[in-house]
Amino acid sequence: MQDHNVFNLFKDRLEIQHFNLPDADIILYDNVFTLEESDTLYKSLYSTINWQQDKIKFYGKEFNVPRLTALYGDTNKSYRYSGISMHPHPWNTDLLFVKNRIEILAKTKFTSCLLNLYRSGQDSNDWHQDNEKELGVNPVIASVSFGETRPFKLKHINNANLKTVSIPLNHGSLLLMKGTTQHFWKHKIPKTTRAIDPRINLTFRIVHS
Ligand SMILES: O=C(O)CCC(=O)C(=O)O
To answer: What does residue 43 show for φ and ψ, rounded to 5 degrees?
Structure first.
């Protein structure tokens, strides 16, 4: 089926929010996946993805990264982030289903998907920019969420007058970041002491070799 025909099948349920932030181009799409699709994908990804526990070195000591991760994609595209080098697993059916849907909204073909599993409120992702060399200038990052809603915090790297922004990333949503966003804004998923369910995040990227 042509992309515009597929788009017609889900465009009416989309809730779209544009964030008017300097040096950024950020759009949130809620309901990209129906509740039924989101529930099925969450369960399937939770149990079938090859989740791994990465380690980071800090002052010569090794620590577990506070979440599980996995890299899937075109298998000739290795990826290095935060000093961790990953070789992708080949795309599976769930990921191709998600990828096909979000590529229509992003108008972009992605090569790779980095997945994060936040098992509880104690799992988190600290301030960073997705600005690795392999992602090129002005990368398009498409971030899909399933499971517990977690706040996605954004802060400008050098304009202290701008307040931190908080975007709730709901089950079945897509956050699209484009333009200069990754050069000027850091993002994070903070910890919480609340008892919450797990969350799965998929960030689709284009990795240039
Ligand atoms: O979990 C999220 O929404 C953010 C993921 C993220 O920042 C990353 O993988 O670089």
So the answer is: -65, -45
Residue 112 above 90 pLDDT? Answer: yes
Q: How far is Cα 165 from Cα 185, in angstroms, rounded to an integer?
A: 10
Residues with CB under 6 A from ligand 1: 114, 116, 125, 130, 143, 152, 169, 187, 189, 201, 203
Residues 147-169 pLDDT 10s: 999 999 999 999 999 999 999 99
Backbone torsion region of residue 111, taken as left when φ is above 0, otherwise alpha when ψ lies between -120 and 50, otherwise beta: alpha
Supply the range of the domain harboring residue 73. 3-205
Q: Which of 67, 110, 116, 204 to mutate to test the pocket of ligand 1 (most atoms within 8 A of CB)?
A: 116
Indicate the number of domains in the chain: 1
CATH number of the domain to which 86 belongs: 2.60.120.590
Nearest CA to ligand 1 atom 8: 203
Beta bridge partners of residue 191, listed in sequence order: none
pTM (predicted TM-score): 0.95
C-alpha distance across the termini of the chain, in Å: 30
With the CA atoms of 105, 108, 114 and 116 taken in that order, what torsion angle do they form, in degrees rounded to the nearest 10?
-10
Whether 60 and 117 have beta carbons less than 8 Å apart is answered as no
